[in-house]
Design goal:
This protein has 290 residues and is of the alpha/beta class. It has a six-stranded mixed sheet, with helices on both faces. Strand 12 and strand 13 form a beta hairpin. Helix 3 packs across helix 4 and helix 5 packs parallel to helix 6. The protein starts with a strand and ends with a helix. Bound molecules: adenosine-5'-diphosphate.
Length: 290
Amino acid sequence: MGRLKISNLSKTYDNGVRALKTVSIEIPNGMFGLLGPNGAGKSTLMRTIATLQDPDEGSIQLGDINVLKQKNELRKVLGYLPQQFGVYPKLSPEALLNHLAVLKGIINRNERKERIESLLHRVNLYDVRKQKLGGFSGGMKQRFGIAQALLNDPQLLIVDEPTAGLDPAERNRFHNLLSEVGEQTIVILSTHIVDDVKELCSGMAIINQGELVIQGNPIQIMDTLQGRLYQKSISKGQLENYKQEYQVINERLYLGKPIIHIISESHPGDGFIPIDTSLEDVYMLQTAQS
Ligand code: ADP
């Protein structure tokens, strides 16, 4: 399978919101993280790649498939887990997968049964395959979502904000599953959670206010700040002063006390200590409102 090439994609909604502004991204095989704050344009981009909506301009190529022109071809090789994925609460995973498999055209009964069994094992829901989906935890529902997205053995899997609301153990399990899928498939993970990308993705892009602000592998992207980051623990009342004097890109609390991260081309003295860059710092810098 070739790579996914997104070129100069633009979209303005009827209400005037410019959700995508000439976005170009190249996505190789493996796990790719699309990171951005709420409203950045991630879902718009995911839905456009999934052929659920059209852009105003631009093109998308997946291997030999011209995605925007050959929608049916794309849909055959696409798995998609949308942001809001509803299940029929009274059905079991086995029954719902069976239903969805018929819709996807897997009409041979034995083939369907085999495929569903193997998927249930893969997402670790085999033991609960006859229970009702309505009683499942968030993590179990998301794993079911992946199972349905894998029914057609896709070459491209798109998952839109899949870990929001999962507890840490569920999130871990979900990460492991995605990472396995990513060994044979292009997986695009859209998220506002920096750690999702840091833990999983070999490639990534940051999108903010409809614009692509940086793309590459996470290490390269972290390196863009190397040697320029400093940290200091301050008291609450001082924050505004520091913001006046320095380029504060990250502020957080540690044991109830604010810690700030600043960018500086040389050592600022003043009690600051140099620190290694983190993806979160780059993300905070790249998505700061100007
Ligand atoms: P994200 O997934 O990063 O949160 P979205 O793609 O959902 O971002 O939204 C990008 C921008 O487009 C937001 O300002 C959002 O309010 C707007 N938007 C999304 N969908 C629509 C729509 N159907 N009609 C009008 N505006 C929309």
